[in-house]
Write a sequence for this structure.
């Protein structure tokens, strides 16, 4: 077991440790590139990539094992702001962000930027309204805070329900993404790949809890950001001679606008149906665009697996700063995603649409063979298959028209190395990056769920006298059980669960945000008010989600189901204020506690209560 | 209570909160109301309205958080409630 002084040394030497790690990773990529040149088959390059990175994460997880409660739940509160920022960024950016974000931007154009804005702007709310106060409070979990501020188990229990609803579908989707990436690059069957991914995820989190997850997430962030940037940087250098895609895709946008017009004038695209890339509000109307941004931002500031990362910093000051670092590291990926989308669209408009059906670019067939590209309604496996299908669909000119092409959103990032004509090693790197993104998010979510079950339900509600060792054993058993449930569910490929992930933001926003914010910023907020507000806000949101999706209910004023919190949030806030005003003011003791919560100096509120 | 002037401290903290929130609303929402008009300006190939949603606002958010945390730290120190370095 690592001793306390041992891990202290580790924290002092973080720069060196991760510097060497990054250098080692770069050397490893170069080594694989050399192996590829001397003729090692692609499949082996893929295996080496995935197994080497998995082994490193698992190694960090095992080295960080711990038997101390505060190490297990909050990494001993010694994670420096900068590294906590990296860990949060990895925690935040899921497999879908890594693989699917650029694809959504490709399809939606300007309207897709609602996701880019919503998933970044929320951190301002985290920094200003929530994180520093939760850090000062000194809780292990978000429901822990709700219980202390709003008097007891009822508030804790609602907090756990909200946490569970927004985290479980999310973690299932991450395990699913792990399975997809592993199966695509390693050629395993999907079901096996899911369980291989699961073992990797468990090795990172089980023995060391938050401490292990923190240090693996930093390692995973480094891999994922390198993997995301390299292909598009090379592509930008090839196309425009400047390796800064984030600046150069302005030119691509101009070329896309020109091509959009010429495709229409050549009759290759339907002018009425083509939605120009930069034109706003073509997929979402104006109201839905802004509702979506608001729900995603407030959801960000309410997701338990993100908030709990700020419990690990050494001070309140570090917690605030750490939010800034988090957003900076997230920004590096999110401001690159639109460049991927623009370069891919340019490639498709230039070289694919209008090409003769006999000679589409090779990468179209590569992805058609794994079911990700469809032409005229069939998988684009070979030139002959494509030609036949298009003839049957009544295309007689032998050219590919815009509306005959259907690209799976995941292709945009994955295919970029091939579009740029790069060696396979870069594709392997992208796979390792996607895997890191999915695993790091899964780790954080699993820990959030398992900690709520072990700390909030088992320790606080079932057996408050449990010994330290017993609590840690229970925490680990629950972690494994939750992980197995998620993996089993993911292995059934549940389409519904995957589309429900988008709900997590609305559910978290309506369930947690009003209680967290008013709990800190409004002393007059009472327990009854908070509980009533959480139930009302969460209830309205859940009702809207279920009724519009399964109940056949029409959308209220055309608000899309992904922005359901637009109804739940105001209801929650109003109920919370009205009920609080109707019930007696919180006790002097509680008001003093809130004053203490607002004062950065001194020990945590919980430690003071215990002493 | 850590300091005799708790209410002065909290007043300043709250003012800073509202200022930060106002900047957040501006870059998160208000700028994008005018995307149509902004798109008539082009910089380095980017229509300005598109650029603000894809990069400009994001950069503003990052700077805003670092600015906020240094301002809040200054308030903490002024009222003697900052943690020891």
């Amino acid at each position: 077991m690592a001793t306390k002084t041992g891990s202290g040394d580790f924290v002092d030497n973080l720069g060196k440790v991760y510097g060497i790690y990054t250098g080692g990773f770069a050397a490893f990529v170069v080594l694989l590139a050399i192996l590829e040149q001397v003729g090692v088959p692609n499949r082996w390059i893929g295996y080496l990539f995935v197994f080497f990175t998995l082994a490193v994460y698992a190694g960090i997880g095992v080295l960080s094992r711990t038997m101390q409660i505060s190490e297990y739940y909050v990494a001993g509160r010694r994670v420096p702001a900068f590294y906590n920022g990296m860990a949060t960024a990895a925690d935040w950016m899921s497999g879908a962000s890594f693989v699917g974000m650029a694809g959504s931007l490709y399809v939606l154009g300007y309207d897709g930027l609602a996701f880019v804005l919503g998933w970044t702007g929320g951190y301002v709310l985290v920094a200003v309204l929530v994180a520093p106060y939760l850090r000062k409070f000194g809780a292990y979990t978000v429901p822990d805070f709700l219980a202390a501020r709003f008097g007891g188990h009822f508030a804790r229990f609602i907090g756990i329900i909200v946490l569970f609803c927004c985290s479980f579908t999310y973690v299932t989707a991450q395990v699913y993404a792990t399975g997809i990436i592993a199966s695509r690059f390693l050629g395993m069957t999907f079901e096996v790949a899911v369980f291989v991914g699961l073992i990797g995820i468990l090795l990172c989190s089980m023995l060391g809890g938050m401490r292990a997850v923190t240090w693996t997430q930093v390692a995973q962030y480094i891999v994922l950001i390198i993997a995301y940037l390299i292909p598009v940087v090379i592509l930008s250098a090839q196309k425009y001679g400047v390796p800064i895609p984030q600046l150069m895709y302005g030119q691509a946008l101009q070329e896309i606008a020109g091509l959009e017009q010429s495709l229409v004038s050549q009759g290759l695209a339907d002018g009425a149906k083509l939605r120009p890339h930069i034109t706003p509000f073509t997929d979402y109307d104006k109201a839905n665009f802004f509702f979506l941004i608001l729900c995603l931002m407030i959801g960000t500031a309410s997701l338990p697996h993100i908030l709990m990362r700020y419990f690990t910093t050494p001070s309140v000051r570090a917690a605030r700063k750490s939010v800034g670092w988090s957003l900076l590291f997230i920004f590096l990926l999110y401001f690159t995603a639109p460049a991927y989308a623009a370069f891919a669209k340019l490639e498709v408009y230039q070289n694919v649409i209008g090409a003769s059906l006999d000679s589409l670019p090779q990468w179209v067939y590569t992805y058609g063979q794994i079911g990700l590209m469809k032409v005229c309604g069939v998988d684009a496996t070979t030139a002959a298959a494509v030609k036949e299908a298009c003839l049957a669909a009544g295309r007689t000119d032998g050219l590919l028209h815009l509306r005959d092409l259907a690209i799976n959103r995941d292709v945009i990032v994955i295919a970029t190395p091939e579009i740029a004509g790069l060696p396979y090693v870069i594709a392997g790197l992208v796979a390792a990056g996607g895997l890191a993104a999915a695993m790091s998010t899964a780790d954080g979510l699993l820990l959030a769920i398992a900690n709520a079950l072990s700390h909030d339900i088992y320790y606080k509600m079932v057996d408050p006298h449990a010994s330290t060792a017993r609590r840690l054993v229970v925490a680990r058993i629950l972690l494994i059980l939750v992980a197995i449930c998620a993996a089993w569910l993911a292995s059934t490929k549940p389409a519904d669960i995957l589309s429900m992930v988008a709900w997590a933001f609305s559910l978290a926003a309506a369930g947690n945000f009003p209680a967290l914010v008013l709990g800190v910023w409004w002393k007059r907020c009472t327990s009854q008010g908070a509980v009533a507000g959480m139930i009302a806000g969460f209830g309205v949101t859940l009702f809207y989600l279920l009724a519009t999706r399964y109940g056949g209910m029409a959308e209220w004023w055309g608000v899309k189901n992904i922005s359901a919190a637009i109804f739940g949030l105001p209801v929650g806030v109003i109920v919370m204020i009205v009920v609080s005003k109707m019930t007696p003011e919180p006790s002097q003791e509680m008001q003093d506690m809130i004053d203490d919560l607002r004062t950065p100096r001194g020990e945590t509120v919980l430690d003071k209560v215990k002493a | 209570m850590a300091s005799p002037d708790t209410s002065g401290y909290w007043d300043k903290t709250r003012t800073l909160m509202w200022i930060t929130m106002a900047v957040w609303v501006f870059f998160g929402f208000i700028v994008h109301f005018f995307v149509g008009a902004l798109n008539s300006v082009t910089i380095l190939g980017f229509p300005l309205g598109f650029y603000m949603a894809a990069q400009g606002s994001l950069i503003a958010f990052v700077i805003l958080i670092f600015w906020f945390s240094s301002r809040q730290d200054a308030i903490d120190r002024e009222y003697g409630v900052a943690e020891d370095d």
